[in-house]
Design goal:
Layout (H helix, E strand, L loop, with lengths): L2 E7 L2 H14 L4 E7 L11 E7 L4 H12 L4 E7 L1
Antiparallel strand pairs: 1-3, 1-4, 2-3
Length: 82
């Protein structure tokens, strides 16, 4: 089974510092992290998407991570278990 978390930050410039602090706190359960946002020569998107592949060792830590991220204004986190 895989535990994948998708995190939307919009606007990412104001919500990213607090989200980063939380991700660092739970870094030991994050196997893979991918960050995506629109970027071009002339513009940089205000929205961002982070995808996490999580260790399933501690369900409570995963739920705490989800709750802490969702407590930040302009951040939406969803957990998908496949």
């Amino acid at each position: 089974m895989f535990s994948v978390m998708a995190i939307k930050l919009s606007p990412r410039t104001s919500s990213a510092p607090k989200a980063q602090e939380i991700l660092t706190k739970y870094g030991c359960i994050i196997k893979t992290r991918i960050g995506l946002h629109e970027a071009s020569k002339d513009t940089c998107s205000t929205a961002g998407l982070i995808l996490l592949d999580l260790l399933r060792d501690d369900e409570k830590k995963i739920q705490n991570l989800l709750a802490e991220l969702n407590s930040i204004d302009n951040v939406t986190a969803k957990l998908l278990e496949i």
